[in-house]
């Protein structure tokens, strides 16, 4: 999934470094990506790097926030918001996640998921920024899940928040399996299973509670 900035404002050295971080960290990992690597990819000096970031950790935090900004714009404008029925919107979201599993593995895997696994126990600041990004995105799904439950009169032992977070757990796990095997089709299979799970979850609840 491409997360390149599309703003027409002048691209600064900071922008270039952040965009380089999105690419390199997904390709090589956070630890293996050096400040020199970032400067070379961005075409800026090391002096420019330290003008904008006090440390590589600060760059990691900023990269997680930049990722949220870029992907947030992508998802906000995606066509899955169009269906009138909230369950159909939620399923269309999953379909959209499947559609964007294209290109090389590093191009569609998640920056914040990659960093969260790698820096756990090493950088509280980056871990927190990555967690905020993942849970923040999950929160954007809760309203449609809640509305779908209300429309169907569902009384469940799970919450919109838990299902929204479950979708992210499946997606992050799909990325890990794809990286571990070098096979993008595994990720596609996992997302397809997620869709089937959601369909079954709502159909079972409807069959139990729907008296219409």
Automatic annotation (TrEMBL):
Residues 34-53 bind DNA. Keywords: DNA-binding, Transcription, Transcription regulation. Gene3D superfamilies: Tetracycline Repressor, domain 2 (1.10.357.10). It comes from the Bacteria. GO terms for molecular function: DNA binding. SUPFAM superfamilies: Homeodomain-like, Tetracyclin repressor-like, C-terminal domain. Residues 11-71 form the HTH tetR-type domain. PANTHER family: HTH-TYPE TRANSCRIPTIONAL REGULATOR YJDC, TRANSCRIPTIONAL REGULATORY PROTEIN. This is TetR/AcrR family transcriptional regulator. The lineage of its organism: Bacteria, Pseudomonadati, Pseudomonadota, Alphaproteobacteria, Parvularculales.
């Amino acid at each position: 999934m491409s997360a390149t900035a599309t703003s027409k404002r002048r691209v600064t050295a900071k922008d270039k470094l952040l965009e380089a971080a999105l690419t390199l960290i997904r390709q090589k990992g956070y630890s293996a990506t050096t400040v020199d690597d970032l400067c070379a990819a961005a075409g800026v000096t090391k002096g420019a790097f330290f003008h904008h970031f006090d440390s590589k950790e600060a760059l990691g935090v900023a990269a997680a926030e930049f990722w949220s900004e870029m992907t947030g714009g992508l998802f906000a404008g995606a066509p899955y918001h169009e269906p009138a029925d909230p369950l159909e919107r939620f399923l269309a979201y999953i379909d959209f996640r499947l559609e964007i599993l294209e290109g090389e593995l590093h191009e569609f895997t998640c920056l914040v998921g990659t960093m969260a696994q790698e820096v756990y126990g090493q950088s509280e600041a980056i871990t927190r920024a990555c967690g905020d990004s993942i849970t923040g995105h999950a929160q954007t799904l809760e309203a449609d899940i809640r509305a779908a439950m209300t429309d169907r009169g569902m009384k469940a032992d799970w919450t919109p928040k838990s299902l929204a977070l479950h979708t992210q757990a499946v997606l992050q796990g799909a990325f890990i399996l794809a990286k571990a095997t070098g096979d993008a089709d595994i990720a596609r299979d996992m997302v397809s299973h997620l869709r089937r799970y959601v369909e079954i979850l709502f159909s079972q609840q409807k069959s139990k509670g729907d008296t219409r």
